[in-house]
């Protein structure tokens, strides 16, 4: 399959390299590290076994990439105002668009530009960071759940799930994409924001009783906010306990992407991870008070708000 | 009047020095800066006119201070476990105890140790910091409202108010001390905590729309929490607007005491300003959700919680 990766940060490089290793024709839109990656290839370090890809098809401009069968979007959501323009040259009649970006609003943006029938969304549970130029450090997890923007299962979503599984990525096609998006937010909203705000890792937040309770209360707010959207079936209260346990087990010492963004002076994905979920929840009468407070505290630290 | 000042930080030194200048016999319990202050005196800088007191009666140990007519307590509330022991040597039969410490629980502590009938509380609206050793910088405001711990007006509370007024401190005796304590918390709870947490001054919090709303919402929670205590009359919703306007006018660039405590690595007054108010509010069914979240975030940064 011919695949174009838009947004080749740690997540895009990781999944793209696994797909290339599995034999697909993968083209990467690269900004940072273009020279190193196209010159010397890409190294993936992983507890599951690292590997090196000698030859990476990298492009500085998506106009040079050609049309593809699948566009895999892993752009930071704060750059979404550029997304449609970056994707457009890759789109042929049959092209499917799969966004595995964080938060809400990304499928909607692609659907508006290219039509909802070609759009899928995926939720990646993964701990991955960039190391030195040309190196991706995979820390933990890595599975994807994906589904059609228009809802329901389809031959296409099954085929894409099979493709990821064959490439070594545990992947499940789901009928209710909105549900898995909100489930991911149950983790992202507390940990991305609290870690970025306090400069502490998840394990430290769980070790302090006051912030452990706060994380759990924020998770409850997000679960209620999601369930107010009329999902196919509600997110259960047990999901919170699963997330707390899984965090303690796998990502206790993991720096969430938003914490790294803050540390490295980049803007935060506040629109996709906070503002749109807050609006969707408020529209259904779910207040998410603590989430709103966390957003306000994060917004205060943004360069644009100074 | 013979007055013993326990807790000679910026606030205790400021009011004590005004009372001494007005002719009272004031004794200070000093830790930090004992040598400088007893050797070279105390300098007060103030927009209302600074002054220097050549001779300060300083003591390292309250056992050497003798009994007094009035004990003025301005100790940081995080040192309250030492308070009764420090105060005891100053107490004769007729001695009154006036605590102008922050937050809730201070009068209760003195009442338990010495009997409620000799205890008064005062709420100081003041911006004052310590400068170099032997120097107090008065920035803004300075008034005190004081009242009997047991409630109601008394000849004693009127007399103390008159004493402060004669010394140049605008002071009012009030019948409902609990009400003015909660009114002070309407300012302290948002600004002390948010400034300490974000390392930003009040004016910056009010300039960002998201945190300005947050400050107002926290003030609403505290007003509701106070009003749930059955005050003599409720704190009005207009009080919030007055506090926001007064902050913008007077203390926009003022570092609240808790912000300085955090910057200088001291513990924070979390018990008096957050935990006791949260307990009192919860007991009456008022949740103060954002206040609880702010407390959790502050607690995470405490040395003891690490």
Detail the topology: elements first, then pairings.
2 copies of one chain form a homodimer.
Chain A lengths: L1 E5 L3 H12 L3 E5 L4 H7 L1 E4 L5 E3 L3 E3 L8 E6 L9 H5 L3 E9 L6 H9 L4 E12 L4 E14 L6 H12 L4 E3 L3 H22 L3 H6 L1 H19 L10 H13 L6 H7 L6 H14 L5 H12 L6
Parallel strand pairs in A: 1-2, 1-6, 2-5, 3-9, 6-7, 7-8, 9-10
Antiparallel strand pairs in A: 3-4, 8-9
How does this structure look, described?
The structure is a homodimer of 306-residue chains. Chain A contains twelve helices and ten strands. Chain A has 306 residues and is of the alpha/beta class. In chain A, strands 1, 2, 3, 4, 5, 6, 7, 8, 9 and 10 form a ten-stranded mixed β-sheet that branches. In chain A, helix 6 runs antiparallel to helix 8 and helix 6 packs across helix 12. Chain A is globular. The model of chain A has no long low-confidence stretch (mean pLDDT 95). At the A-B interface, helix 6, helix 8 and helix 12 of A face helix 6, helix 8 and helix 12 of B.
Beta content of chain A comes to 15-25%
**If helices are DSSP runs of H or I spanning 4 or more residues, what is the number of helices of chain A?**
12
Order of helices and strands of chain A: EHEHEEEEHEHEEHEHHHHHHH
Which bin fits the share of residues in helices of chain A? 40-55%
Most residues in contact: chain pair:
A-B, 24 and 24 residues
**Largest sheet entry of chain A:** 10 strands, mixed
Please state the average pLDDT score of chain A: 95
Extended strand count of chain A: 10
User: Rg of chain A from C-alpha positions?
Assistant: 19 Å
Structural class of chain A: alpha/beta
Oligomer: homodimer
Query: Quick one: overall form of chain A?
Result: globular
Q: Report, as a whole number of angstroms, the end-to-end distance of chain A.
A: 46 Å
Which stretches of chain A are poorly predicted, pLDDT < 50 over at least 5 residues?
Answer: none
